[in-house]
Automatic annotation (TrEMBL):
<keyword id="KW-1133">Transmembrane helix</keyword>
<feature type="transmembrane region" description="Helical">
    <location>
        <begin position="334"/>
        <end position="355"/>
    </location>
</feature>
<feature type="transmembrane region" description="Helical">
    <location>
        <begin position="300"/>
        <end position="322"/>
    </location>
</feature>
<protein>
    <recommendedName>
        <fullName>CorA-like Mg2+ transporter</fullName>
    </recommendedName>
</protein>
<dbReference type="GO" id="GO:0016020">
    <property type="term" value="C:membrane"/>
</dbReference>
<keyword id="KW-0472">Membrane</keyword>
<feature type="signal peptide">
    <location>
        <begin position="1"/>
        <end position="18"/>
    </location>
</feature>
<keyword id="KW-0732">Signal</keyword>
<dbReference type="InterPro" id="IPR045863">
    <property type="entry name" value="CorA_TM1_TM2"/>
</dbReference>
<keyword id="KW-0812">Transmembrane</keyword>
Amino acid sequence: MPLAIVVGFLLLKVQHLGIPNPIQKDAKDLETFTPLKIPLPPAHYQQMLKCLRLPLHAVELTTFLGPLFWYRYVLLEDDDPHLQMVFGKHDSRKKTGTRGWELILSYSFKRRETTGFVKWTPTADIVECLSNLRDCVLDICHPLLIPSIIMSDLVATSDEVKQREARTSIRQLEKAISVNDDTTGFYYSKDGTIDLRTVASDLTEHHRRILHRPPKLYSQVIDALEAATDCFWAHIDPTDKTKALDRLHATLKDRFHCHRVSFITAEIAQKDAKLNLKIAGDQRKIAHASKSDSQAMKALSLLGAAFLPGTFIASIFSMSFFDFQTQAHVSSKIWIYFAFMVPLTTAVLLGWLFWDHKRRRLQHLTRSSSNNSGSDTEKAIMFEISKRA
């Protein structure tokens, strides 16, 4: 039987003085993050959302793909304004289950407290974020603190670590397939032979890891986080804007701005890569078109070499192609034309073939010498680098 994934459910009632409520854990469901799937019985789930004043839109948002941050400012009954938020990622699935997570928050401007519901799996990316939340008890009065911690961990830490790991693995790949280095000790090499299938598989995996988080989607999440932060600051009571809260608010804004710059840079790099790929494709099309044009010109030149000598001889002998006179007949000396035309045409064709063969050989020698000079230069540079190291 497959092992069931242990899913933790965290029920928070967060005040600016601490986290008094306990944590509910050990709920098991392999399909907990499938669309329109709720973790509790419908009656209990509805009662929980109503009691904690969480948004009912959280059920509808279970069908989204990729990272999502949703918020709204709403005035509930008894004239209590709330800032409701949903932050999560549902489509991160593996063979044994899912790595998704979901965070539902609701901040009461009247009571100055945040209620929340968190669902995650043991392999989710936010487990450490929620464990680090207790270190920020004094700053918990800001409702965007928890999403900020999650976003900072997702963006600033894991992506950089994955980039470094991918670079290290790619260096190992380069060393393994290099003809100048010893390939023993690498699992790509067996008896001195490189397994290219394994190398291609690892390159694909590194490419997937680097592009695992699309910058455009996370840029939209950053935009929504900044808008929610501005909404909170615009509707909070001016008497509640203490110096500590003001500093925390400015820190969160600066952090979101840094994340935005990072994602914009990544998006620009991704667009540059796509543009380079498009340019390479266009260059390949141009090369094919040039090859077709050269073949067409070659065919025309061959036809010219075959027919022009005969036409030249016919013009010298003043031979007419058609004679419509009644007494027209073929001259008995027509063999003189063929005696000149056939050798001349043969000589022209042989000369053309010899010239084409010589031109191809010269081009091949030029390319070979260019490649050899490039390899010699690369070897010299690598030798100098190894001596300096």
